[in-house]
């Protein structure tokens, strides 16, 4: 349903499980970055009224996810650490050439956002199915549903604002490229690591 070309190696969960503090720290900042992306889309594309409305709602939702993760960190007696570098996202956003019309730039940003949501959703599903810590598994199950909805929303906006045929072709190319990036990942305790 997510269209991803390369599933995560299930052994990634074993790595994560050994360092829950690290995954929660990385995850908290993923939620913060999702909030920042939504704000940035509002600032860059204010004339897209429906997008602005949805991004306003998304800012609240992603920030509430941040709080949920932060609460988990506090419950376990930890303090939120510094932001982690997300090499996956850094590599992903190099795919489309810079420039082009405003619509093209918007479409590219929406496709990146859709893919990051899709991969997060896939990772959360794995955690929800395989974590020994059942409380955390349920936590990830609920978040998985939210991120699946975000994936659908971002891809829907890309198809609505861009030329549907072109958008679908770009989406397929981006999925292929993402699979290449993922083939070198799956070995650290990071949401996209
Ligand atoms: Fe989220
Ligand atoms: Fe999200």
Automatic annotation (TrEMBL):
Gene3D superfamilies: 1.20.1260.10
Any one biological process term the GO annotation gives: tRNA modification
Coiled-coil residues: none
Domain of life from the UniProt record: Bacteria
Pfam assignment, any one: MiaE
SUPFAM superfamilies: Ferritin-like (SSF47240)
The protein's name in its UniProt record: tRNA-(Ms[2]io[6]A)-hydroxylase
Classification of source organism: Bacteria, Pseudomonadati, Bacteroidota, Flavobacteriia, Flavobacteriales
């Amino acid at each position: 349903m997510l269209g991803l070309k390369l599933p995560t190696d299930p052994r990634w969960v074993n790595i994560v499980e050994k360092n829950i503090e690290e995954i929660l720290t990385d995850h908290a900042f993923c939620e913060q970055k999702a909030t920042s992306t939504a704000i940035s889309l509002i600032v860059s594309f204010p004339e897209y009224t429906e997008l602005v409305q949805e991004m306003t709602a998304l800012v609240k939702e992603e920030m509430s996810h941040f709080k949920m993760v932060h609460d988990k960190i506090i419950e376990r007696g930890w303090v939120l650490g510094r932001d982690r570098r997300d090499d996956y996202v850094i590599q992903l956003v190099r795919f489309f050439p810079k420039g082009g019309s405003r619509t093209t730039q918007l479409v590219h940003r929406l496709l990146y956002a859709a893919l990051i949501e899709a991969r997060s959703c896939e990772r959360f599903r794995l955690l929800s199915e395989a974590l020994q810590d059942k409380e955390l598994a349920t936590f990830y199950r609920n978040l998985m549903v939210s991120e699946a909805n975000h994936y659908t929303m971002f891809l829907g906006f890309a198809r609505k604002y861009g030329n549907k045929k072109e958008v679908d072709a770009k989406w397929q190319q981006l999925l292929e490229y993402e699979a290449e990036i993922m083939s070198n990942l799956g070995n650290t305790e990071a949401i996209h690591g």
